[in-house]
Amino acid sequence: MIYKKTEDEIELQRESSLLVGKTLAEVAKYIQPGVTTIKLDTIAEAFIRDHLAEPGFKGYGGFPGTLCISVNDQVVHGIPGKSVLKEGDIVSIDCGVLKNGFYGDSAYTFAVGEIAEDVKNLMKHTKAALYAGIEVAVDGMRTGDIGYAVQSYIEPLGYGIVRELVGHGVGKKLHEKPEVPNYGRRGSGVRLFSGMVIAIEPMINLGTRNISQEADGWTIRTADRLPSAHYEHTVAIRKNKADILSSFEWIEEVLSKMNG
Ligand code: MG
Ligand code: MG
């Protein structure tokens, strides 16, 4: 079952998705060498609850945190804890909120202080790949067109696309149908229609696409231990152009202020 949301439902989902963007912006203010990942999680949870919403990930499948915080070679699903961010790290932060019965889901990869040029490029291209996918996420296209757009952008650059984890429908549930892979063939997969809401979320590795799962049962890492980046938007499918419900605007405002 793939849900077609009404305009009213999409507006509720926009509210949830924008709150994710604001939460990530709040967290961004504290990303610097020396901060623990649990501190970032605590800030996010308080911020979400102050806005009369609930953390979408906390308790989901038993996940303990408000945020998934994945550092360097951790791809996704990192558990917040005592680990301390240091100069030169990158940190992928994925956040979900539940408000008025609807989920918003968005992720962003941040630099901790100065980072290596090749990692900076990985981040830049992963974000660009997300927007390449969004570009074709319109009524009448298929999930395979999104995957193709991401893959044809990323693979010529020599990066690895994680295949085991994919984007997804999102609404009253955090994960709904259809699956939205970050690789694929044009014209294949599930047909997109207006009123469908999906999360598009490329996970891109500096090295090979291979991953492994840590003993904590959650954290996904790159097999070659090279860094990985992750950007995600919740988008509503429309006739001619996708309607991006989440936003990086506040995050990037904070980052530009922090970087002077
Ligand atoms: Mg997410
Ligand atoms: Mg997601």
Fourth-level CATH superfamily: Creatinase/methionine aminopeptidase superfamily
Described by the principal axes of the CA atoms, the overall outline is globular
As a whole number of angstroms, the C-alpha radius of gyration is: 17 Å
**Structural class, judged by helices and strands?**
alpha+beta
Q: From the 3D structure, determine the CATH topology.
A: Creatine Amidinohydrolase
Tally of extended strands? 15
Small molecules bound in the structure, each named once: magnesium ion
CATH architectural name: Alpha-Beta Complex
Oligomeric description of these chains: single chain
Q: How much is the average pLDDT? A: 98
**Low-confidence regions:** none
How many helical elements?
Answer: 5
Distance between the termini: 48 Å
Order of helices and strands: HHEEEEEHHEEEEEEEEEEH
Residue share in helices? 25-40%
How many structural domains does the protein architecture include? Answer: 1
How would you write the strand order of the largest sheet?
Answer: 8-7-9-14-15
Structure write-up:
It is a single chain. The termini are far apart. The chain is an alpha+beta fold and 260 residues long. It has a single domain, classed as Creatine Amidinohydrolase (Alpha-Beta Complex). The protein is 30% helix and 24% strand. It has helices at 7-28, 37-50, 117-135, 143-154, 249-258, and strands at residues 54-55, 67-71, 74-76, 90-99, 102-111, 160-161, 167-169, 176-180, 197-200, 203-205, 211-213, 220-222, 228-230, 233-236, 243-244. The strands form four sheets. The protein has a five-stranded antiparallel beta sheet. Strands 1, 2, 4 and 5 form a four-stranded antiparallel beta sheet that branches. A three-stranded antiparallel beta sheet has the order 3-12-11, with no helix packed on it. It is globular, with a radius of gyration of 17 Å.
